């Protein structure tokens, strides 16, 4: 049994009501729910939220919201893993024991059904604890600079100043779309970024973190252009 859990807390600060704010004509969370449904991977698709309005929108978009997440798992400091563990434990209490659970972020409009299916394939074929979406950095991280308190610049890795970009190791980061995991891994709260996890590589044009209004506006522009190509 495979389940999808979409965390959607109501207390977004930088973009109020971010999870259900209209994004390209639909509530933001609708894009994640639609991809989960169309993937055909899941016996159950639920939204874990502490907010009644988000729960109502989620139901209208085709997901279930069978419980209200407790307050101790709904503050600014609660991580993803405890939230998914709580959901898996809820399924077990209902007499349904998932084999795999996929955390899908509510603010991931670029997620696709095919990438969700690919993530499940990678998880099962590799025997990993987790398989999650990643993408490459557009610039070598070894040549990153910081701005000092004095308003000057310095390299994080000054020994790499004369190294050609093409000679530096490519680096990747979390794409912030989905995390497939063995149910036992979620229950044990195992770390996701570890050698026990497998990457699901996404192209950079399909990834945009959305934390500020500038991010949001950029994402809408990218999304409209991307939709014309698929």
From TrEMBL:
Molecular function per GO: nucleotidyltransferase activity
Keywords: Nucleotidyltransferase, Transferase
Entry EC number(s): 2.7.7.81
Pfam families cross-referenced by the UniProt entry: CTP_transf_3
Keyword Nucleotidyltransferase: yes
NCBIfam families: PseF (TIGR03584)
Protein's UniProt name: Pseudaminic acid cytidylyltransferase
Gene designation per UniProt: pseF
């Amino acid at each position: 049994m495979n389940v999808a859990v979409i965390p959607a807390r109501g207390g977004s600060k930088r973009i109020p009501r971010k999870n259900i704010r209209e994004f390209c004509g639909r509530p933001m969370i609708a894009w994640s729910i639609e991809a989960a449904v169309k993937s055909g991977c899941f016996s159950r698709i639920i939204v874990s939220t502490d907010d009644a309005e988000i729960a109502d929108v989620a139901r209208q978009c085709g997901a279930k919201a069978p419980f209200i997440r407790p307050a101790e798992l709904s503050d600014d400091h609660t991580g993803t893993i405890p939230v998914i563990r709580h959901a898996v434990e809820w399924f077990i209490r209902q007499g349904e024991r998932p084999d795999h659970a996929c955390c899908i972020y509510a603010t991931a409009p670029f997620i696709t059904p095919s990438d969700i299916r690919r993530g499940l394939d990678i998880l099962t074929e590799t025997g990993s604890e987790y398989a999650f979406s990643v993408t490459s950095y557009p610039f070598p991280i070894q040549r990153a600079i910081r701005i000092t308190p004095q308003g000057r610049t310095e390299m994080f890795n000054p020994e790499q100043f004369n190294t050609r970009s093409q000679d530096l190791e490519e680096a990747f980061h979390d794409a912030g779309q989905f995390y497939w995991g063995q149910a036992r891994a979620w229950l044990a709260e195992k770390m996701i970024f570890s050698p026990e996890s497998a990457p699901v590589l996404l192209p950079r044009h399909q990834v945009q973190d959305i934390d500020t209004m500038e991010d949001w506006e950029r994402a809408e522009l990218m999304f409209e252009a991307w939709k014309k190509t698929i």
